[in-house]
Amino acid sequence: MTSLVLTVTETLRYRGKLGMWSWVLHRVAGAGTLVFVIMHVIDTSWATFYPELYAKAIEAYATPLFTVGEFALVACVVYHALNGFRVAILDYRPQWWRHQATAARLVLLGTALLLIPAFIIMFAHVLNYYNVRLPSEGRGFDFQFGLIVEAVIPFAVGTVAVLIAAGIVAGAAAVVPGLARRTENRPMKRSPLDRFMWSFMRISGLLIIPLVFGHLIMLHLIQGVFDITLAGHVPVGSTLGANLAAAEMLAPNFVALRWNTAVAGVFVWRVYDIMLLVLIVIHGIWGARYIVNDYARQRFVNRTLLLALLIVAIILLVVGSLAILNTVPATVESLASEAQTGQVLSAVGR
Ligand code: HEM
Ligand code: HEM
Q1: CB within 10 Å: which end of the chain, N or C, has fewer?
Q2: Is the CB of 198 within 6 Å of ligand 1?
Q3: Is 41 in the pocket of ligand 1 (CB under 6 A)?
């Protein structure tokens, strides 16, 4: 903790060069995106396991505070992706290191060039929601703090539970004689796993770029959070849902329709989401491990946080994959007929 405070104060005092600020921004953007991803994967799995909860989560995503967070999230993803690209490429090309400063400036320019049109399109969705859709539903502007608190509480409780579990295991490991001695005062040597993960961070980052940009283009720009519950439309990238009754276009249906879309017998969005899930969870959690190792030096705190990260990674991979792989009715007819019976259509969860 003291090292985190020291880093923040020294960073502000030092007023370092562009390279240092790139590093700080990269770290903050990566950590911020990871926090969102943790909530997002758990929320999305509710479309399968608890459709009513998913509908509530999407309602919370449409509140004004979450909308502000959504703009920040897109900025984080775009900056981290472009800067990560710079880091990955230059790490493999030492002969280009003298162009570091130019590359860092290009990243800032590229981020601005991508964010300006993206923000304009996202803002158009926001204006349409508040000026057209809400009045047409007889609703007005409302912060809906209650909904936000409801959405955040399960994650706050989950975080505390994971930290307690990790603390108990770390504490127990510290008093088991053989284990305690083996882990004490080990020199910080780079293991083969560290070396492998160094390459993995770079290669996975490059693979994540098209996946996450594609996901954001579909679910932020072409259709946004507000469209997930928009009446009577076909979800982006789907061929299903055209004949769903307008009132049945509920949030879980949107996910079901995308996950049920098959091209040549392949559920394309499930394959896509599984790749995205596996890459970002391993990349993001390993990145968070660097951050923990930099700031949490005290042994017990360090072990507890690293174990907590491991637990979170396992939960995300298991819950996220189970949600994506869950049974689906094969045809849109079954989706539509279920919808017409007025049930919440959790199609993926049957
Ligand atoms: C979009 C494509 C992405 C690229 C090109 C990318 C690239 C990188 C690179 C090159 C690193 C440095 C690794 C190292 O120091 O060894 C890194 C670190 C990191 N990444 Fe990503 N990344 C991407 C997406 C993500 C996503 C989606 C998340 C969140 C889930 C994330 C979270 C992190 C974190 C937390 C770190 C550690 C930051 C630090 O040590 O300062 N990244 N990323
Ligand atoms: C607020 C912006 C976002 C919206 C509205 C959104 C929406 C969705 C939706 C509707 C799904 C369900 C499956 C599908 O339709 O393909 C989904 C799944 C997923 N999204 Fe996003 N997404 C957003 C941002 C992101 C970002 C920034 C990332 C990664 C950095 C991400 C990663 C994922 C992953 C990994 C899944 C699969 C989840 C699972 O395994 O259960 N999403 N997203």
Answers
A1: N
A2: yes
A3: no
